[in-house]
User: What shape does this take?
Amino acid sequence: MDFLTLIQILDSSVRLATPLLLACLAGLFSERAGIFDIGLEGKMLAAAMFSAATAAITGNVWLGLLAGIGASMFLSIIHGLASITFRGNQLISGVAINFLAAGITVLVAQDWFSQGGRTPQLSGAGRFEGFDLPFADSLGSVPIFGPTYSELVSGHSILVYIAFLAVPATWYVLFRTRFGLRLRAVGENPAAVDTAGVSVVGLRYAAVAICGVLCGIAGAYLATALQAGFVKDMTAGRGFIALAALIFAKWRPWSALWTCLLFGFLQAIALRFQNIDLGVITVPVQLMDALPYILVVVILAGVGGKAIPPRAGGEPYVKER
Amino acid sequence: MTAPAIELKGISKAFGPVQANKDISIRVMPGTIHGIIGENGAGKSTLMSILYGFYKADAGEVFISGNRTEIPDSQAAIAAGIGMVFQHFKLVENFTVLENIILGAEDGALLRPSLAKARKSLLELEQEYDLKVDPDAVIEEIGVGMQQRVEILKALYRQANILILDEPTGVLTPAEADQLFRILGRLKDEGKTIILITHKLREIMDITDTVSVMRRGEMTATVKTSETSPEHLAELMVGRKVLLRVDKTPAQPGNVVLDVQNLRVRDEQGVERLKGIDLQVRAGEILGIAGVAGNGQSELLEVLGGYATGTGTITLNGQPIDLTGKNSDGRSRRANGIAHVPEDRQREGLIMDFSAWENTAFGYHHDPRYASGILMNNAAIKADTQEKMDRFDVRPPHPHLAAKNFSGGNQQKIVLAREIERNPDLLLVGQPTRGVDIGAIEFIHQQIVALRDQGKAVLLVSVELEEILGLADRVAVMFDGQIMGTRAATDTDEKELGLLMAGVTA
Assistant: This one.
């Protein structure tokens, strides 16, 4: 494998890791506040459909992004109502959101565009194009650094940079701000927050809302940057992979970054090398495609150390009698 | 005359059909320690939760320093200078002490300046009140005594002038409790007002200035502590005369029933928790095991009760008992004639969501009276439970009620009835009266003594030294997995036992 191939695979890893990373951080906010969210998948899917549809209709990808965030937020608020206000079961609510999104996206897309549940192909201003960072061209000829910078670091869509900047931002918010302290506290012991005179409900809704925004960006990225339009079930389990990554990262932002990059890398390899010939045997493409999902199972089986979730996670907060 | 620090007028609160507080009025003068005593479920905690804005009263008014104050939420209570230390601490376990202290009382959107400021005030508070804590320690890694100090510091950091403590000594060792009382004395000297909720008469007598007694949601009396006696308070609490001392005749010890030689137990981490225990319990005597919690008493009960394994020799009435293998489980122990009232009745003694009659059958499912083949004879179990409940005065006497709906004392009676009525040769009892109200304590102690008088052997484990001294005939003190010494209960006192509990041998 030559250097340029490696750079291209890594470049592809970054692109594929982006939606995972956004969804993973979305889950991180929600779960750190004690609201388990297996509806990441559904929120991304809804965001993908509505962003692609809006971008297709208006021709403006930024309006598409807003629509995607709006759709995801709407589902987030449903999840918040079910699990915070009405103290319902968070897993059931999440499952319901996934089903709802899987059905309604195709239905709406078919109703609006009559293209078999797809949205029209996006192009031009209807899509997030990659943009070059300064000096990408002029530095391209410098050995090693040049291609690394111009191919790997530069040339992604704005959402990729947002996703990667969201990592230090998340870390900072969680561990260096008042909001972060309270958010982490409410996921560990909401009674401590309540007796300290801070609203448990308010904090949890804030966390769920942030989760909605990030999932919205993730979905919009899928349909308007990574691909050029929405197709049925295009999230392909990314929401669940993001959840597994979150567990493997032990609910920490920086670890989430590395884990998502690992998943992105596996997907990139599967895309790049269809059948890998190892001389003795040929690894079929199906196995390569399945790798990220196999890794999910391995992670959930507890490889990589014991992951301790936020202690109040999944439990609705009820004042004790 | 100065205005009371707190005055409550006509507070009422109902939870559904249960009237938790009925028209309660109380005045707490500034700079005093005011005790509120009452049995479990008397409404003490509800009243204080109303004061702290946790619940909203159905009727009544609150005056703080003479001013009528609305307390709709905890934020308002904190603003009014009220701090509360709950029975179950409200701390974030994986946060540091400092983070817990600033939570909700941060100075700005960023943490760094808040933490720095809190660190400084913590040092000042530490010096002012002699409250030592390590600001960077993580809560789950410090002991309960220290955690409680963090709770007190949390309140003081929020400028609390009135401190409410709900059953603060329930989780503390005697030494830690003494330290807490010293701190409370110090706070009082500095002009703070303290409300101490408890059901322990001794604490009330020791440190309060005034005491209010609650019974079934009503305030029955408020008296000066110096003008009352434990007997009088107990009567006010329970509504009848209560015997505070255990009434028993000297023991008539018979043959050795339980003989333990060189018992060793390792925990899951491989740490040796019992380091060669030798002890004997005779028929017709109560051997009390005293010690600070966590010195191996629990492991001793677990091995004898059949849910931990160990090495050594144990005989019951001369017959050896297996310490490992298939004949070392709880069912085998029961077959051997060992009954067990576990230390933690809510986790080990009962299934809280199951009804009283189901709980009564636990461990004795194979009893032919309860079952034939694979079928349970539920009607027989229910009838038996009903009789047990009547005999043990369990209130309310409804076999269908879930275990969690009974008070601590009545839960304990259900467990005790199940175990004692099996007519065991040896009864293991752990913390028989933890979280149990005075009226029930008297009854439970009487039952244990009655079993002894039938010539049975009783092994009693309790962290309450008073209980050990009152109930046991002989006292063995455990420290660090070993028995430091054994004394006749009549020949020793709290001071001598306290030294042994600390590992000091004369």
User: Anything to note?
Assistant: The first strand of chain B starts at residue 6 and ends at 15. The mean pLDDT of chain B is 90. Chain B has 17 helices and 22 strands. The first helix of chain B runs from residue 44 to 51.
